[in-house]
């Protein structure tokens, strides 16, 4: 930083002002590319912007007129305006990245407010630039930055606060003439989908559906214009329109599949198909499946709609719980969605159809790593949703299909999904001790040379065994040691998702907490207590929990983890004093 500071001070009086300013911003862009965001912000972008204002830059972001008069004294058509816009936008990106580096989970309230300020600044910059068609690149980039930050905040449960910014980004794409072309339609549909999702997150499904239908109208308007004078090859344009329409249709289905059942009295009795009877029926078997067939062509699109309809931002993987709405019909729809998803995974939905499917457009069921068929990621998500809803028959049945796919993959990137599903099977008897007799034990060969597509190279054993009701420690220790081995590998890309790790550690802590607190309260008689009650096993699990927290870098994600560490420290002190 000092070296760069000295360079700028040394060369500023020797270079033409326009050249010096261009170098400032260009060097900032280069620093941002190598993730030196703080250096780019302080020594490049803000140094450039300080020529316009000597006070805090955020102080002039509250009013559009003040903003324009400060940064664009000669108007937005000035030859230097584009460089100023570029610096303003890049400054916001650097601030966002710096917040992520120090507080990605936004545990500090100031971090959240900083990101909201960044969104406001991006919106203000785009508002001033929007009337200038030659600055459409700035509008496009701005929508990308807004979407990135908003998706981050949506994951953190802040959908209500980012809805207005996503709406703004969508309207900007519609208001800039160069961005109305088919080339940008895929991105525009992504923004529309994010807005609809935001509404659903806010429990405002009706407006989510309305906005999705509005998006369909906009897409259809563009298609009519494209048909009059095509600017792209027909096959390319057709694919773009099909994908955009699919995104909107999925968001419409997300609400329509439930609302259609609420509104219709004739389905309230006798509409539910029993599982044994469903085996002999041809697809579509239920009201839900018929709606899927009406709205979507192909198994992949239908499966995507099922996933979105079952997904709920307020539902976590742990603890799992079945749907508990007031209306029985909604539970029926959920069951039918899972049944339809399993039917697609098994391939029966296509085998039972009487229509001939074009082989070039549809695979007869395959979970694939490529574009055709149901994607592996989607299939894994379906299994996780079944676990979340406590639909154990669907969970185990789908797990068999997905495990067949995962074991046939040579790409090590699928190892992560394999491990996560293994953890779920181990967590079930811990969360529901003694409730189920069926459990899966999946073993994998960790050797790199063994990772071949041949199923014989990997082993999977499905076993039935009765859980030992008097030995709760058994399942806890298996889960703890398995997670520990997963996070101990040097291959970071196969570590389970941090959210799952947090859930597992919290689950272990809740199951062990009472026993561990008894050990902690034994004080100087700690060793005697451990020996008398054979409690060494609980201390072992506590140590493993601390190791998992440390190795996976999740200590800052939950305040309870500090309690776990303090508990271990207190017990070790008691042992030392015993």
UniProtKB/TrEMBL annotation:
Classification lineage: Eukaryota, Metazoa, Chordata, Craniata, Vertebrata
Biological process annotations from GO: cilium assembly
Pfam families to which the protein is assigned, alphabetical: CFAP54_N (PF14858)
Protein name: CFA54 protein
Gene name of this polypeptide: Cfap54_0
Recorded coiled-coil stretches: none
InterPro entries: CFAP54 (IPR027912)
